[in-house]
Amino acid sequence: MTEQMSDEAKFRYQAYLDDHKILVERESEQSLSFDKTLISISSGALGLSLTFIRYMAPNPEYLPLLFIAWICFILSIVSTMSSILIAQHSMRRQRDINTHAYQNPEDTSNETNRSVEWTLKFTYASMVTFILGLVFLALFVGKNL
Fold it and tell me: How far apart are CA 41 and CA 75, in angstroms?
């Protein structure tokens, strides 16, 4: 392919590949950072709520709000961890798809990688459940101060 391209086209193609590689690497770094942060903050919120009950509200009211918050934080952690595992599977699957496409250029079946969709769904679920956990925890704290 590159033999038939002009020097300018080769330069632009290489620049495209370089930029694409950098963007993929940064996206991966950001995803890892997001996952770590969400797990840390969700875990911290669980711990903070236990401390709040012990020292600030020894006889708490509206406990269902706290229990819902805890469930949301736990679901956020589980969703994040699931997202990480599914993303690993997704990368292996994409490598297989790419290898097949490279080894069989005449095959135009266009395999799809559904794991990518599931990774995104679990990532969104982890964020939504985290936000819900914060809302219910804030309501619980507000009612018990």
Answer: 13
Tens digits of residue pLDDT in 2-11: 567 788 888 8
Distance in angstroms (rounded) separating the CA atoms of residues 38 and 46:
12
Q: Residue 113: CB partners within 8 Å, gap ≥ 6?
A: 90, 93, 94, 97
pTM of model > 0.70: yes
What is the separation, in whole angstroms, between the first and last Cα of the chain? 69
Residue 61, Cβ density class (10 Å: 0-12 exposed, 13-18 middle, ≥19 buried) = exposed
Q: What is the pLDDT of residues 53-92, one digit of tens each?
A: 888 888 889 999 999 999 999 999 999 999 999 999 998 9
In the numeric block, the tokens 């963007």 are attached to: 23
CA distances from 140 to 46, 52, 116, 128 (A): 13, 10, 36, 18
Which sequence spans correspond to the domains of the chain? Answer: 40-144
